[in-house]
Specification:
This protein has 7 helices and 5 strands. The longest helix has 27 residues, at about 45-70. The radius of gyration is 15 Å and the shape is globular. The protein has helices spanning about 15-25, 30-40, 45-70, 95-105, 125, 130-145, 155-165; strands at about 5, 30, 85, 105-110, 145-150. Helix 3 crosses helix 4. The protein has a single domain (about 5-165), classed as 3-Layer(aba) Sandwich (Rossmann fold), CATH 3.40.50.300. It has about 170 residues and is an alpha/beta fold.
Length: about 170
């Protein structure tokens, strides 16, 4: 089984869809934002407050490196297990993350209308114009992605469509 990497705007459904895909396909699920917060010992809003976006992005890249290395390391007993990874919405803003994600698995861009994006608990989503953020990031999501799926239906149906495609 291939590893699956989910990218997309904050609040597009990466975590929800990813958990469903993992459950239905027997893969393990990893949410990089949760790993990042646990590693930092503080919440994502606290990281943004103390370290600003640049500090957060540096931590995010390190988490991606660690997660992808630790789940494919030949000394790791989980190496025969496939994973679904939900990334942070802005991971595509650092070009170095491209090779990390591409070498790990199939990269799927979950696209969702900006009016439907969840903003609560997402510092950049609250502070930014979502339309402008989307316009800036869309070419990056498309560059990183192997496949694009719209999440304009239920998370369950989006997950099923992804499973069918892969």
């Amino acid at each position: 089984m291939k590893n699956i990497v989910l990218i997309g705007m904050p609040g597009c459904g990466k975590t929800t869809v990813g958990q469903i895909i993992a459950t239905k396909t027997g893969r393990l699920f990893i949410d990089c934002d949760i790993v990042l917060a646990e590693t930092a010992g503080m919440s994502i809003p606290e990281i943004f407050e103390q370290e600003k976006e640049e500090g957060f992005r540096l931590r995010e890249t390190q988490v991606l490196k660690d997660v992808c290395k630790n789940t494919t390391d030949t000394n790791n007993s989980a190496m025969d297990t496939a994973f679904v990874i939900a990334t942070g919405g802005g991971c595509v803003t650092r070009q170095e993350n491209y090779q990390i994600l591409k070498s790990f698995g199939i990269v799927i861009f979950i696209e969702r209308d900006t009016s439907l994006l969840e903003k609560q608990g997402r510092p950049l989503s609250i502070a930014s114009n979502m339309e402008e953020m989307y316009k800036t990031r869309l070419p990056l999501y498309k560059q990183f992605a192997d496949i694009v799926f719209k999440n304009d239906v239920s998370a369950e149906l989006t997950a099923e469509n992804i499973i069918k495609a892969i």
